[in-house]
Amino acid sequence: MQHRRRFTQTLSLEERLAQEAERLRAQAKELPRGPEREILLRKARQAETGSHMSKWLTSPGLQAPK
User: Fold this and answer.
1) pTM score, two decimals?
2) What's the DSSP call for residue 11?
3) Contact at 8 Å (CB) between 29 and 63?
């Protein structure tokens, strides 16, 4: 039986997504305009959106509708 490798994340999900977005934007900056660059920029926006959504969902101000 195989065992799953488990490790504790040192950074929060929001921080990891923000770093991924930065990395993708830097990589896109190196490319000329075209479909590959647009794909990387789209992935960066998705990572940023995911980070913002995660922050919003875990915020203490979020309450169930009444």
Assistant:
1) 0.76
2) S
3) no
* CA pair distance 47, 28, nearest whole angstrom: 14
pLDDT digits (tens, 9 = 90+) for 16-61: 999 999 999 999 999 999 999 999 999 999 999 999 888 888 887 7
DSSP 28-56: HHHSPSSHHHHHHHHHHHHHHHHHHHHHH
Burial 28-53 (b: 16+ CB within 10 A, else e): beeeeeeeeeeebbebbeebbebbee
Tokens representing 15 are 């921080």
